[in-house]
Amino acid sequence: MADTPTKVVVNCTTGVTEVIPLTAAEIVDMETARVAAEDQRVAAEAEAAVVAAAKESANSKLKALGLTDAEITALTK
């Protein structure tokens, strides 16, 4: 049997801390947020891969034109 996720609620006035089980709605919200964060991470990684490929392609084309690594670095910084 899986444990129910909990949240910690602290009453700042009294200093009383309570550990309360999440409701079904809170669990659904938490899972929705986790899926959205994972989707954002995957999209960011895909975008970074596209940028890296474009950068490599550009560097290859500049080398084909006869530029040195130092010249390419000077142009791309």
Gist of the model:
This protein has 77 residues and is of the alpha+beta class. 64% of the residues lie in helices and 13% in strands.
Structure description:
- With 77 residues, the protein is an alpha+beta fold.
- The mean pLDDT is 95.
- 64% of the residues lie in helices and 13% in strands.
- It has a two-stranded antiparallel ribbon with strand order 1-2.
- The N and C termini lie far apart (56 Å).
List the helices and strands and how they pair.
Blueprint: E1 6-10, E2 17-21, H1 24-64, H2 69-76
Antiparallel strand pairs: 1-2
Unreliable segments (pLDDT under 50, ≥5 consecutive)?
none
Q: Total helix count? A: 2
Structural class comes to: alpha+beta
* SSE sequence, one letter per element: EEHH
Task: Kindly list the characteristics that best describe this protein.
two-stranded antiparallel ribbon, alpha+beta, elongated, single chain, 77 residues, 2 strands
